């Protein structure tokens, strides 16, 4: 649907800690703050309907918020409004971007000039991970879910293709914001899988190097 040449040069961004969006994945959001309600309303007036999800950096208390350099833009593809005026929306991941600078303006939310260079892969077909050992990965994931007391539909996970499985888990697992950023910045699906495995093992073994799975 999108080519790099017709992606917007300036987009609104939503700095939500721990909320990760990846290309070709979907992120549901519950919007209730007035400034982000305004962002959704303005977004729906644009032809591209793009919103950038980006992680705030950790800063000392009392300091101004800073944003990571790389985020991921999604197209607003689902919208509903609750009786009390909140919005339930879904963003469909389009491409990662690099923040160039924040743009001054009169909107209550942040807008950024962005560059899409270097992320051409995001606009292509789904990625494959030829080195993916699914059985060993699912065994590790099962131990992690047991340790974290998490539930999932294992049949659906087993049937999902490589990209959907790895990206969905990257988005859904309760990692901290810096870990989510590392998953976002992984250049390929195989790199993201390796990062995900490292995070799962770290949670299980406190960063030990036993049972390494690459």
Automatic annotation (TrEMBL):
Family matches, as InterPro entries: Lon_prtase_N, Lon_prtase_N_sf, PUA-like_sf
Alphabetical keyword list: Hydrolase, Protease
UniProt domain Lon N-terminal: residue ranges: 11-204
Keyword Ion transport: no
Superkingdom assignment: Bacteria
An annotated Gene Ontology molecular function: serine-type endopeptidase activity
Pfam family, one: LON_substr_bdg
GO biological process, alphabetically ordered: proteolysis
EC number: 3.4.21.53
Name of the protein this chain belongs to: ATP-dependent protease LA 2
Protein's organism: Profundibacterium mesophilum KAUST100406-0324
